[in-house]
Amino acid sequence: MSNSTPKPKPPIQNPTPASLPPTPNPAPFSLPHTTEPAGSGKLLHNKETGNYFCANCKNPLFNSKEKFDSGSGWPSFFNPFKDAVEFKPDKLLGIQRTEVICNKCKIHLGHFFKDGPKNSRYCINSKDLNFEKKK
Ligand SMILES: [Zn+2]
């Protein structure tokens, strides 16, 4: 108990903002909003019977019975499974469109248009779909 009085430690200083490494921007919640080139998708001409799933989270999105050839260059569907997708207004190209996103993981899937034979066309990127053939 004969220790000499400890010297007061210098207070720990917070680093000044200038000495902090730059913080990268937080990652966006959804993956980049990209559209594959028309006619390039591996599932565009797929006519097998089965289901189409979200390529990111495996959420079931469409049945092959709903797929049709819209001539747009992208896989097109009349209707998704119930609650499979969500809509988001999209003004990216300066025109009002409706973006289709996965209801589960919120990735961009494609766009919805009120045209085609049933006034309902989901134009979806092949790259955002996984197809599982019905056994
Ligand atoms: Zn998903």
The level-1 CATH class of one domain: Mainly Beta
Q: What would the principal axes of the Cα set say about the shape?
A: elongated
- Cofactors, ions and other ligands in the entry: zinc ion
Q: Into which percent range does the helicity of residues fall? A: under 10%
The assigned CATH architecture of one domain is Beta Complex
Task: Name the CATH homologous superfamily of one domain.
Answer: Peptide methionine sulfoxide reductase
Number of helices: 0
Oligomeric state as shown: single chain
**CA distance, first residue to last residue:** 81 Å
Uncertain parts: 23-31
Going across the major beta sheet, what is the strand order? 3-4-8-7-6-5
Round the Cα radius of gyration to an integer and report it. 25 Å
Query: What does the average pLDDT come to?
Result: 84
CATH topology of one domain: Metal Binding Protein, Guanine Nucleotide Exchange Factor, Chain A
**Biggest sheet, open or closed, and with what strands and sense?**
6 strands, antiparallel
Feature tags:
135 residues, mainly beta, Metal Binding Protein, Guanine Nucleotide Exchange Factor, Chain A, six-stranded antiparallel β-sheet, three-stranded antiparallel β-sheet, 9 strands, binds zinc ion
What's a quick, concise take on this entry?
The chain has a domain at 54-129: Metal Binding Protein, Guanine Nucleotide Exchange Factor, Chain A.
Please render the helix and strand layout as text.
Layout: E1 50-54, E2 60-63, E3 67-68, E4 76-77, E5 85-90, E6 97-102, E7 108-113, E8 121-124, E9 129-133
Antiparallel strand pairs: 1-2, 1-9, 3-4, 4-8, 5-6, 6-7, 7-8
The chain binds zinc ion.
